[in-house]
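Input set for joint prediction.
Command: fold jointly, output tokens.
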Amino acid sequence: MQISLALTTFAEKKWNMATKGQYTYEYPHPAVTADCIVFGYDGKELKVLLIKRGKEKDASTTAYVGEWALPGGFLDVEKDKTIAHTAARELKEETGLKLSVKDFKEVGTFSDINRDPRERVITVAHYALVKLAEVKAATDAEKAEWYSWKDIPHLAFDHDKILRVAFSKLKQNIHFEPVGFELLSEVFTLPQLQNLYESILEVKFDRRNFANKMKHYEILSEVEDDTPRHGTRTPIKYRFDKDNYDRLKSNGFQLEF
Amino acid sequence: MQISLALTTFAEKKWNMATKGQYTYEYPHPAVTADCIVFGYDGKELKVLLIKRGKEKDASTTAYVGEWALPGGFLDVEKDKTIAHTAARELKEETGLKLSVKDFKEVGTFSDINRDPRERVITVAHYALVKLAEVKAATDAEKAEWYSWKDIPHLAFDHDKILRVAFSKLKQNIHFEPVGFELLSEVFTLPQLQNLYESILEVKFDRRNFANKMKHYEILSEVEDDTPRHGTRTPIKYRFDKDNYDRLKSNGFQLEF
DNA sequence: AGCATTATGTGTATTTTTTACACAAAATAT
DNA sequence: ATATTTTGTGTAAAAAATACACATAATGCT
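tokens >
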């Protein structure tokens, strides 16, 4: 085989194909993966999309078979434009859920030297928020399953830790980002919105204060309902006023709760 | 050469040494680097530590020779416990500045497919804050130089972008982190502290309101000065009250400006 | 069917926080 | 010597956050 090729400096070639499917470098390289933490909300509870690890093409390259894990996979060095593209591609391959690259927000890098038993693997975790409707649609993917935040099983690798960090990022970002927009369906009720904020921030709010604050921002508009509500028990339906929301956001808007 | 070795699955071996200094994998792997954005404050201006890229051992592996860049370098797959260890190690090697691994805060991953002309390189950017005294001490390293934030030259690779993102992270984090602690010397004045906050947040504060707010937190204690101030023009010296600061922080304290 | 329970909508007074604002003294610059 | 700049200090007004209670309709239970 072409040993001479293997001896070229890596400045001349990105990699050398010494034999079919073999890639050679002058210094050791880690593998890089993207993992996805997909949060959903069914109107009652915060959920996370997990997959069951199975045997892949080559069983020997698969670790933690049969355990639950975050969706994710290896960077395609030649095709993935960014690591977020890896996240989007792998999520679709593993769960059928098709999200845009810009829906992924970076959580952080996890690089502990022994986090993967096979070789050195650095993973970049990303979270994404999906609307209630998509939560229901995606639930029937074979290996993928939505778990309630309060009922997450033990996960493979260091995914427990990654999930905790992702949740705390979400908790931080809820102050600056339109989390309601992204997790609720287009039409929603104030109790749902409040419950969502309470689930993520892990606190309880006074109903009146929450409603006052939200109304003060002027980002909610009432949806006229065909079935005219005669009772207080049937919650009023709202949708987000996107114009007002965007205007506020571009002015450095900051949701405080 | 040892083609047979190269054909072992990567589950059996992390990498295969096909020839001296050659590492082989079944799929292409990216190189991974850590880059450091080291912020300093000289009492007047926010500064950033940059290095001038020179010829390394092997000139052909070096890109952007002669340009300014962020300190940083390749992950040592076998030795660096985490990518933050890479950052700390490379910063010391390149600038002489010796920081603890926990001083580095992750900024994010930069993974554009063509960001490095040599091969696919994913970098994980980290920022660190150093005290005024260390800024002065480190200034005499050969290749390294402190640049005023307002006067940064064009940088190699995508380091301009990385620096912008790092700064905006710092700007966000100043609301939750003891930035003053880490960037000022032990004894400082209120005008210095205010100027630091103004430099990072890019706003101006009213002097009285700033002082009131800071005093309200009870994290400043006045330093008795040998030269007794007879004039208002000589600013009062303070140090941080670490006990009060830590207590506030563990209670979920949040500096708002 | 009737009754109990639960979920929803709504307004105001109090407290806390934020903001706006001016002058006198000492150091420095001219 | 004079002008300019820097610093320290307190209060009143506005805005925001918090605490709090009752009436109504849907649902659940027997």
